[in-house]
Amino acid sequence: QVQLVQSGAEVKKPGASVKVACKASGYSFTNSYMHWVRQAPGQGLEWLGIINPNGGSTTYRQSFQERITMTKDTSTNSVYMELSSLRSEDTAVYYCARGGANGDYFDHWGQGTLVTVSS
Amino acid sequence: DIQLTQFPSSLSASVGDRVTITCRASQSISSRLAWYQQKVGKAPKLLIYWASSLQTGVPSRFSGSGSGTEFTLTITSLQPDDFATYYCQQYNGYFPWTFGQGTKVEIK
Predict the structure, then answer these.
(1) Band of the pLDDT at A84, cuts 50, 70, 90?
(2) Is residue A53 within 8 Å of residue A4, measured between CB atoms?
(3) By the 8 A CB rule, do B46 and B36 touch?
């Protein structure tokens, strides 16, 4: 069965960077896009960007363009999301989510990674 | 960006009730809409895609309808396991994909 397993919770200081991992299993890794979505405490869902594991092309939400990087490692079936210049407003649960048949909706989700930004 | 407005933002209902949640898009998105269920402390779960297609394994009491700018998620005969927050999401054409603000379904 499809599984997305994310790395553990992180605590970072303002201005630092964080890198969250998402390891996929149970399907052909390069056949499905992967998205990243975040959810601040008590808030709704915010789409951050998408990576194509087949080749590594990415598209980021414009407001994150300058400080987000998504990468992939096909040897370990993993994708990564790195966010730099962290501020308190980046405190959130970060999810990886597999794109559906056309990469559009999200048919499987990781368990989420809590990133806390605090001085 | 395409804005999605869900209403109501919350509702109270009893087991066995029929529940309808509406999602309105700021411009036409054809049928490019999905619905998710999220329980506290858990990741969202896909219920409906392409506005009305039921995801594998999702109970048939969930259904979706609509096209263009107006969409609904209906739960016939609400069950105890259905108390959660529901989100719509659009995937029409250009990024960013966006979500509605959520509808919390609580026990009356």
Answers:
(1) very high
(2) no
(3) yes
Pairing of the two strands B70-75 and B85-90: unpaired
Among B residues 32-91, those touching chain A with beta carbons less than 8 Å apart: 32, 34, 36, 43-46, 49, 55, 87, 89, 91
Residue with tokens 């739960």: B75
Could you tell me the pLDDT band of residue A101, with boundaries at 50, 70 and 90? confident
d(CA A114, CA A105): 23
- B35, closest residue in chain A (CA to CA): A105
Q: How far apart are CA A104 and CA B47, in angstroms?
A: 14
Say whether residue B7 is in contact with chain A using an 8 A CB cutoff.
Answer: no
Residues 6+ apart with CB under 8 A from B78: B13, B14, B15, B16, B17, B18, B19, B105
Q: Pairing state of beta strands A10-12 and B103-107?
A: unpaired
* H or E element at residue A21: strand A18-25
